[in-house]
């Protein structure tokens, strides 16, 4: 009786049986998962939700704007002075910071110059393993950038928090758009120096972008968070250390321009204000929002939401985010959008509560925007100088306005954009803590629609599910192959000693594969550095060269790894079969 019970095998648990079934049919399951993952990815624009403001303390649009026509007129006069200095003098890289600092001092702001060395423009993948100072040129240079920084202390604050405005400009050859951005920032800065409701300090950085917008902002942030000798005095032996302008003002009350480094509190948010060329595509001003930072980091979604809400509902701006324009005219994407729209209509006829389909135009534009968001986050390269703030966990975006107005309506433009910036600063000023309520992981399909991490992770999981399944399937086949080898070895008991010798070297087969893969990874990582040495190459040519050389190196490493027969895992088996 006991022998009969012991002979009956106990059935495994259901989850184990399901796992064994999936492993035994790994190829079919892998194909199904990949197809389902691609289908889910194509459905993401239809599954996107409308954005909403999660933090109640922001209260966008709850207060009337205070920026007046007088503030905008002062900003217009300021930008005219900037343009005059930029066109008349050959030393505009020194005179323009002097003009900016002078006007900051007139507003009773604390002003200082920040002098920084230009960073290297050449790409070096080995800098990834170094500190933040690895990209700084260490040798002497005759060209330095000078950022002009002004700080307005909040009358209701304790100096522990701050909001940052950044206006990059080329001090060597300033453009009309850069002058307009300086005029907008000056108008807002002039207003904020007088208001009584301010609870956070305001920092205005006129970033000298002649060596790059990102480099100027990143250098200031690095010094802001690092106490250095430069905070106390300038080294006289530094190249160009005596070129900073000196102010001797008799009509200005307050401290003069400081060569030391002035600081405020912890930065709650940062806004990069840029004005692009005039927009001929739309009949009104266009606001482009750039949010992607390094390594695919995104700011809190609430920051984008308040900018979009105030721009659309408060000032009538056309808000856009980046998209891949080549997908707009794609016939297959339009056909897929028509199919999804038809399925949505069928679902709505069956149950009015089912809201699945979206119009074809919305689906195509959402797909193009989603593809751009995926590409930018996967690439890991910042889309603007705001990316430097995200490296320090500071929520920031770049607001690029493309105006459409004649030169006589410049004051009206300054009022509209200035009130938008004022509204965003007022919302952030209401916060009692940093942004944390809304999403940090999301994909945008439009300025007002997003795909949360809980939705797009479904497609991600479906696409990577075949990897562990195939690995488990290969592992489960290993005992069978070993069992076959044992049977063959038992039949040929008098095999040569070379068989055991080869068997002892069998582990090198896996080691050589791992080594080949790592060597190929090193080659692929170092290729961009050598490709960047080729002059007059466009980014598309560099990308094609990188892909082609990576493929050639892969074929070479694959051939090289299979050129040693004594390391082949199947060699012992063949030897045993020959001996039998």
Automatic annotation (TrEMBL):
UniProt organism field: Cuscuta campestris
A single Gene Ontology CC term: GPI-anchor transamidase complex
Alphabetic keyword roster: Membrane, Transmembrane, Transmembrane helix
Zinc-finger is among the record's keywords: no
Gene Ontology biological process terms, A to Z: attachment of GPI anchor to protein
Record's keyword annotation contains Kinase: no
Pfam families named among the record's database cross-references: Gaa1
Protein name in UniProt: Uncharacterized protein
Residue stretches spanning the membrane: 20-44, 453-475, 513-531, 543-567
InterPro entries linked: Gaa1
């Amino acid at each position: 009786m006991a022998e009969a019970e012991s002979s009956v095998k106990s059935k495994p648990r259901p989850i184990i049986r399901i796992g064994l079934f999936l492993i035994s049919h790994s190829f079919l399951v892998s194909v199904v998962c990949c197809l389902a993952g691609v289908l889910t990815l194509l459905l993401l624009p239809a599954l996107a939700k409308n954005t909403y403001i999660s933090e109640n303390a922001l209260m966008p649009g709850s207060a009337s704007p205070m920026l007046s026509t007088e503030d905008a007129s002062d900003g217009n006069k300021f930008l005219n002075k900037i343009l005059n200095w930029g066109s008349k003098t050959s030393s505009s890289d020194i005179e323009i910071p002097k003009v900016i600092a002078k006007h900051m001092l007139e507003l009773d702001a604390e002003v200082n110059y920040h002098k920084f060395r230009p960073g290297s423009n050449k790409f070096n993948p080995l800098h990834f393993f170094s500190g933040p100072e690895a990209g700084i040129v260490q040798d002497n240079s005759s060209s330095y950038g000078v950022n002009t920084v002004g700080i307005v202390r909040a009358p209701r604050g304790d100096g522990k928090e701050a909001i940052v405005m950044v206006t990059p400009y080329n001090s060597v050859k300033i453009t009309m758009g850069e002058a307009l951005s300086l005029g907008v920032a000056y108008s807002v800065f002039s207003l904020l120096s007088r208001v009584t409701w301010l609870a956070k300090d305001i920092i205005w950085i006129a970033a000298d972008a002649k060596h790059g917008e990102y480099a100027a902002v990143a250098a200031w942030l690095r010094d802001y968070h690092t106490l250095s000798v430069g905070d106390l005095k300038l080294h006289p032996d530094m190249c160009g250390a005596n070129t900073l302008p000196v102010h001797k003002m008799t009509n200005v009350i307050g401290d003069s321009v400081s060569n030391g480094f002035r600081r405020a509190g912890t930065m709650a948010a940062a806004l990069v204000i840029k004005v692009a060329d005039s927009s001929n595509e739309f009949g009104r001003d266009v606001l482009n929002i750039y949010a992607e930072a390094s390594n695919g980091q995104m700011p809190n979604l609430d920051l984008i939401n308040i900018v979009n809400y105030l721009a659309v509902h408060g000032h009538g701006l056309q808000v856009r985010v980046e998209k891949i324009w080549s997908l707009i005219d794609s016939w297959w994407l339009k056909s897929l959008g028509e199919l999804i729209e038809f399925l949505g209509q069928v679902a709505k006829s069956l149950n009015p509560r089912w809201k699945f389909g979206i119009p074809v135009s919305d689906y195509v534009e959402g797909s193009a925007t989603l593809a751009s968001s995926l590409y930018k986050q996967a690439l890991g390269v910042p889309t603007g100088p705001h990316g430097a703030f995200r490296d320090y966990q500071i929520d920031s975006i770049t607001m690029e306005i493309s105006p459409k107005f004649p030169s006589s309506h410049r004051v009206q433009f300054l009022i509209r954009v200035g009130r938008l910036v004022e509204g965003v600063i007022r919302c952030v000023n209401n916060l009692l803590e940093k942004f944390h309520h809304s999403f940090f992981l999301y994909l945008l399909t439009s300025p007002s629609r997003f795909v949360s991490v809980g939705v797009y992770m479904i497609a991600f999981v479906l696409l990577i599910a075949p990897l562990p399944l195939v690995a488990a399937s290969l592992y489960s086949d290993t005992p069978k192959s070993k069992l076959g080898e044992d049977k063959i070895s038992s039949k040929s008991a008098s095999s040569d000693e070379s068989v055991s010798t080869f068997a002892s070297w069998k582990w090198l087969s896996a080691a050589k594969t791992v080594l080949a893969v790592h060597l190929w990874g090193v080659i692929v990582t170092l290729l961009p550095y050598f490709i960047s040495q080729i002059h007059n190459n466009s980014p598309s040519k560099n990308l094609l060269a990188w892909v082609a050389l990576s493929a050639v190196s892969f074929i070479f490493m694959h051939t090289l790894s299979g050129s040693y027969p004594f390391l082949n895992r199947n060699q012992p088996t063949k030897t045993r079969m020959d001996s039998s």
